[in-house]
Specification:
By secondary structure, this protein is of the alpha+beta class. The chain contains 16 helices and 22 strands.
Length: 579
Amino acid sequence: MVFFDFEVFKYDWLVVAIDPINQREFKIVNNKNMLSDLYQNYKRDIWVGFNCRNYDQYILKGILCGFDPKRINDWIIVKDRKGWEFSSLFHKYPLNLFDIMPNPPVSLKTLEGFMGKNIHETSVDFNIDRKLTEEEIRETIAYCRDDVMNTIEVFLRRKGEFDAQLDLLKAFDLPLSHLGKTQAQLAAVILDAKKIRFKDDWDIRLPNNVQLGKYSEVAKWFLNKENHRDDAELKIIIAGLEHTIAWGGIHAGKKQYNYKCKPHEVILDIDVDQLYPTLMIVYGLLSRSVEEPERFKNVLDTSLRLKREGKKKEREPYKRICNITYGAEGDAFNPMYDPLHRNLVCVFGQVLIIDLLEKIEDLIELLQSNTDGIFIKLNRSDVPELKRRVEEWEKRTGLKMSYEAFTAIYQKDVNNYIAVPEGELYDEKGKPRWHSKGGYVKELTDLDYDLPIVNEAVKMYMLCGIPVETTVNSCDELKKFQKIVKLSNKYRWVEHENGEGTTKFDNKAYRVFASLDNRDGRLLKCDGVRNPAKFGNTPDRCFIYNDDITNVAIPSKLDRQYYINLAKKRLEDFGVCQK
């Protein structure tokens, strides 16, 4: 395995490659022969990079083909073209590639910031119109090497994704050369999809077995051709809640709803097991470009069997193919592209959930609903009758529900909530058993570590009743107070207000903290045309710390009250007032 990263200038290029297993490093500057030797020595190994699927692999292949890498760089970055479109000669140099960049994309500098790493950037301008000096080469190599080392760090934290990709190849007997494909591309290969062009995107129909009762208006809305456009939506009251129905799904939720169950009550999260894959099989909605739907049925059956057997690791590759197939139906570049069936999968899911709500609404209080499940509150004595009705619905629709019980819920809206489980908060492995969704209360990781102290303070109050002041004031880890911001391409530089004016910075990423020092001011993004704008969700007084933050002591000027106030504001957004 070799980790690599290219830097390209108008008259220079360089690459740093690191083989961590054999502890070998390669630093190559403007030397095609050395690059060719590197490729030959490692062409059967796995090449890992950050955004290498879209960029670095084409720089590598282009240089080996004899092309000017700057032309390829500008083709991809300036012209926003796909690297593979540049030349068919790239096929001469196959790579076993794995791209560790998350999806949706997050920049490496942002991830380095989350991990607490040094996020200083090179001072060498990538648009420089001359050859680099020796000093500039040295600085760029150091910068590039740092990025490769951090790519290795990201890989170690996301190794589960790599293992899952390898498991997919093993489970379906695919060659290692497929490692660089996206999971949607792998799904098309596994299901042997042959691209077909369809022209019936809006031939909408409903399942024959659906029973909408008093909500028949929904059926009329879906079938009305005037609504056959992506931005159309219907607002309708269902089970006492206003629902938004659209071509991307259904959702509804009580806003600022917080409730702790009485002993005779329970909150249930009722989800459809593998909704979209099941709809594709039961109702024949798999992409029509798949000639043998039985292949997908076997994948789904295996996924559900392994779930029942509790074999989580063995199930993962099958589960991933099930989950990605729906998305592939909406990807115009995927052989499984079938916009009608994608629309129908979503429509069928929505009307069948409404069908269920119509059958049980007299027993429940609906707290929130999505296309694949609902949160409800009801009396424990009504649970047997609820399950009887759900079972009737399951037999008629071919879908299968799973239940999870909770004793309390704190809900800002349908997309932001935390549900408190019955029994212990953590399982035997120390994993949280509560359900949470949304930026305020989601579970954070080393690669998603923004204002963690606020996230922790909000959750600890709602889950355990611990005052936010206690959480914030007892924390002695500076990293937990960090806010990572990144300058977008719409802006050119950053200014930090100080007591005498502003200090200008050209970096893209910044780690900021609330400050008690009156000389510290706002962090501003500037485009040179409009008035500077403050970075969102940053303090009016802040200080910057872009060095490695690991084991750094908390400075006396850190404004802890800012984080306390922010945590209380977020609680108020949930409708929770700390006593």
